[in-house]
């Protein structure tokens, strides 16, 4: 299933004056705020909005950039070198969006669960724990590693076994390293034709920094990942509406959301 970008939420709403007010609740002096498990953005009374929570499991072979992707979405430093994630790492990311049909503004809370490949293979309980009560799975491949794309079909079949209703989205990481690209547009077209899944693309480097030369620029960082967060919102929210019987299920399509 692929939801057309802009069909569920107002596209680029975060750039509007109203959207910027909501965005300010996840920023502090142009830096990203970081939220623990029981923390949430504080909205003034006139901007009251419901919070919608989703658990998302991040899957992919070792070294494709799972931890870097989550760090980028959360406004954290992207690691400069690969280190295998030990055990399960969870990260909470908030993102405001406005529904197209109702005009309601909502705050979406994403709980990302990232796990190292070695731990998944060693401990049988980790994959079930990551999938328990999950709403979606992000399958990552790296544009610099053709084998990571070739590995996706078996990975999708293995990881989604018994969980067919989970939203499945594919993300191509290291899109910024085009000089070292090992995955072609034809490769992607063949994959989409076969699997009918939405594909998003992400850079895997830190964004601009503030004047101190150390702190990441929160606004610029959000601009780099807005297309991914909006894509997650649209697919997960639409699936909720389908499960509630409020809208019909989409037929499988080949829609792709590229790097914005």
UniProtKB/TrEMBL annotation:
GO MF annotations, alphabetized: GTP binding; GTPase activity
GO BP of this protein: cell projection organization; exocytosis; protein transport
GO cellular component, one term: microtubule organizing center
Entry keyword annotation includes Chaperone: no
Principal place of residence: cytoplasm
Keyword rRNA-binding: no
Subcellular location: Cytoplasm, Cytoskeleton, Cilium basal body
Listed name of the protein: Ciliogenesis and planar polarity effector 2
Lineage summary: Eukaryota, Metazoa, Chordata, Craniata, Vertebrata
């Amino acid at each position: 299933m692929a939801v057309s970008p802009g069909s569920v939420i107002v596209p680029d709403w975060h750039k509007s004056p109203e959207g910027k007010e909501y965005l300010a609740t996840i920023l502090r002096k142009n830096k990203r705020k970081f939220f623990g498990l029981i923390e949430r953005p504080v909205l003034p009374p006139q901007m009251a909005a419901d919070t919608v929570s989703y658990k998302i499991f991040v899957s992919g072979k070792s070294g494709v950039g799972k931890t870097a992707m989550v760090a980028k979405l959360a406004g954290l430093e992207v690691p400069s070198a690969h280190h295998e994630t030990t055990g399960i790492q969870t990260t909470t990311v908030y993102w405001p969006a406005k529904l197209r049909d109702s005009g309601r503004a909502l705050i979406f809370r994403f709980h990302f669960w990232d796990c190292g490949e070695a731990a998944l293979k060693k401990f049988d309980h980790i994959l079930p724990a990551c999938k328990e009560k999950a709403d979606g799975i992000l399958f990552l491949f790296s544009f610099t590693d053709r084998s990571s794309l070739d590995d996706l079909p078996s990975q999708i079949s293995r990881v989604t076994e018994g969980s067919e209703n989970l939203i499945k989205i594919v993300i191509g990481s290291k899109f910024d390293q085009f000089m070292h690209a090992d995955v072609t547009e034809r490769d992607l077209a063949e994959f989409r034709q076969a699997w009918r899944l939405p594909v998003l693309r992400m850079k895997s480097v830190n964004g601009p920094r503030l004047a101190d030369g150390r702190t990441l620029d929160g606004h610029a960082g959000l601009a780099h990942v807005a297309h991914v967060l909006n894509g997650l919102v649209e697919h997960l929210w639409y699936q909720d509406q389908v499960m509630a019987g409020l809208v019909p299920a989409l037929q499988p399509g080949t829609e792709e959301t590229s790097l914005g």
